[in-house]
Write a structure and sequence with these properties.
The complex is a heterodimer of chains A (220) and B (323). With 220 residues, chain A is of the alpha/beta class. Chain A is built from 7 helices and 10 strands. In chain A, helix 3 crosses helix 4 and helix 4 crosses helix 5. Chain B has 11 helices and 4 strands, in the order αααβαβααβαβαααα. In chain B, helix 8 packs antiparallel against helix 10 and helix 10 runs antiparallel to helix 11. The chains are: A alpha/beta (220), B alpha+beta (323).
Chain lengths: 220, 323
């Protein structure tokens, strides 16, 4: 569950990114966050894993006010949240396998379990044969699928995606959205920021529309 | 409340303690291998770092080792030279009615004593002669009407450790005015060496920051090189300890490598010094103890490297934030 209660975010230069934003996405639901570039989508997403803190208001994850989470527990909070960026942020010196295994290693999973889960994730995103490849040997679409596999492999309860299909062709974008729908069907709460309205029109999910830092919701 | 906390603690909590411990051990092994890879990736730079550490530690360790050997050498020397010097009463030189004076009787008794290696008697005349030769005042002494020096008997024990007991025993004899152990010059030199050793140990402590600074610099460069990786790890929930672990091994290995270089260079230098000293007639005793002490320096170097890496990573990672 993700809940915002009258959240404002103002950056040090005085730029207002979010103004009095409130919404609630129940556990296991998927919502799209839309709006033009610069409307505050990324700013909103950054508040959930505590990359940034709100200037005022409350952000709640699974009914917990994350402002009350001590600094030493922030890593544990983040293990519950998978983040997918437009830029895959893969480590180019590591193999695809090692990139995907990183969240499991961080959580001290045993070796056998890591192998089992990474291979299952690779299978899901259709890259089973490429586990030893380096990211630079992959296409943009394949890199994004590695990014998605990495976000999902530790089975987080929440997935945040910031323009996940921004660099992909329409066919691949649709394929990735379908992949998200599958994970959501398995009970993962998802918030997907995108301005590809034609793409999300194909999916039946509530929308949060941001414009100049102000939010209107449809279907929540 | 408990339920929420359990949710935040994540899946890792669901793993058994044994499994988590095994995974922790696995991560240490992976971190160690990762650290080795990082060192091998830039071998010249890392070897130079180790060389800086090694060179800065070699000089004080070599001097410390040489002084240690010199002290051991002087110990043997003082034992060889150690003697009890007895000054007899003037009456001991006067012959009794029966014939021999008390000094000669004592001298003969001491010569027969199996505990003694050598016994020498210096009559007043000979003592005066030695004094005149030593201080070049023959004319002054020749004008003296009365020789003020007592009869002196010097005894060298078979076992140097019995010197003190022997001195007490001889001092109690009626013929003896006073008895003293004569090894003061050597003891003074030993005192000087001990002071020099303490000074060098202090110097070595002051050089330890060289190791720390060299390691810190390497860690800083590593962190700069891997900012993206660290940001990603922070984003997916890695604790600072997890991120830091490979860097600690890098620091430890650098410290260990540098100290190992110092040990090797020290052994060569100590051997060269020992040979040079031998050529001028002062043979330093060879002992396994300093070599063992040098081996003990290796884990210290590793730990110091780990500490320096920890300190550098704590300071540097404060500036790295998820973007």
């Amino acid at each position: 569950m993700i809940q915002f209660e009258r959240v404002c975010k103002t950056y040090p230069g005085g730029q207002v990114a979010l103004h009095d934003v409130s919404f609630r996405i129940p556990q296991g639901r998927l919502a799209f966050l839309t709006g033009p570039s610069g409307s505050g989508k990324s700013s909103l997403l950054r508040l959930i894993p505590q990359i940034d803190r709100p200037s005022s208001g409350k952000v709640l994850i699974n009914d917990m006010d994350i402002a009350r989470v001590g600094a030493w527990r922030i890593p544990r909070l983040r293990r519950h949240i998978g983040v997918i960026f437009q830029n895959p942020h893969l480590l180019n010196e590591w193999s695809v396998f090692d990139n995907i295994a990183l969240p499991l290693r961080v959580q001290h999973y045993p070796r056998e379990e890591i192998v089992r889960r990474v291979r299952a994730a690779l299978d899901k995103v259709g890259l089973f044969e490429r586990e030893q490849a380096r990211p630079l040997e992959l296409s943009g679409g394949e890199q994004q699928r590695v990014n998605i596999a990495r976000a999902l492999v530790a089975r987080p309860s929440i997935i945040l995606a910031d323009e996940p299909t921004g660099n992909l062709d329409p066919e691949l974008s649709f394929e990735i959205m379908r992949l998200f729908m599958q994970f959501n069907a398995a009970g993962v709460t998802m918030l997907i920021a995108t301005h590809a309205l034609d793409l999300i029109d194909a999916f039946d999910a509530p929308r949060l529309l941001l414009r100049d830092g102000r939010l209107t919701t449809e279907g929540l | 409340m408990m339920k929420r906390q359990q949710r935040l603690q994540g899946i890792s909590r669901q793993l058994g303690m044994k499994t988590r411990f095994q995974a922790w051990v696995d991560h240490h092994r992976d971190s160690f291998q990762d650290a080795l890879r990082r060192l091998v990736r830039r071998p010249v730079g890392q070897l130079l770092s180790m060389l800086v550490i090694g060179l800065s530690l070699t000089l004080p360790i070599t001097l410390l080792l040489t002084l240690h050997s010199a002290r051991a050498g002087l110990n043997g020397w003082s034992q060889e030279l150690g003697m009890v010097q007895m000054f007899l009463h003037a009456s001991a030189g006067q012959a009794t009615d029966g014939g021999e004076d008390a000094a000669h009787t004592l001298f003969k008794q001491l010569q027969a004593d199996p505990r003694l290696r050598e016994v020498r008697m210096i009559p007043p005349e000979e003592g005066l002669k030695q004094l005149a030769e030593l201080h070049k005042f023959d004319s002054l002494l020749s004008e003296m009407k009365h020789n003020p020096l007592p009869i002196v008997i010097e005894v060298y024990p078979q076992r140097p450790e019995e010197l003190a007991a022997l001195r007490s025993e001889l001092a109690a004899r009626p013929e003896v005015a006073s008895a003293r152990i004569d090894a003061q010059a050597v003891e003074r030199l030993q005192g000087l060496i001990v002071s020099a050793e303490h000074l060098l140990a202090l110097f070595l402590l002051m050089l330890a920051p060289t190791l720390a600074i060299t390691v810190s610099n390497t860690i800083r460069l590593e962190l700069e090189h891997r900012v993206d990786e660290i940001r990603l790890m922070q984003l997916i929930g890695a604790t600072p300890g997890f991120i830091r672990r490979p860097l600690l091994y890098v620091g430890g290995l650098l410290g260990l490598g540098g100290t190992l270089m110092a040990v090797v260079m020290t052994l060569f230098a100590a051997h060269a010094i020992s040979e040079a000293m031998g050529q001028v007639g002062f043979a330093l005793p060879s002992s396994a103890a300093p070599a063992l002490a040098l081996l003990a320096v290796l884990p210290l170097g590793f730990l110091l490297g780990v500490f320096a890496a920890w300190l550098a990573s704590v300071v540097q990672m404060r500036n790295i934030r998820v973007v």
